[in-house]
Write a structure and sequence with these properties.
mainly alpha, 3 helices
Amino acid sequence: MVRLSEKQLRRLSFAMFKSVGVSNEEAAIVTDVLVSTSLHGVDSHGVRAIPRYIRRIKEGKLVPGTQ
């Protein structure tokens, strides 16, 4: 198992969201929420959800920047 520090996890999450066209502001907000949620012990709604969000963005089911 790979272990990342909080700082590394935040950088990775941010980069993953940026790679699919999410704005800096939105990537920072989503990263903060997901990492913080995992740090509070709720991985099912934390960083474990990142691959699902990335997939949905790629499929057009989630559109970054919409209200």
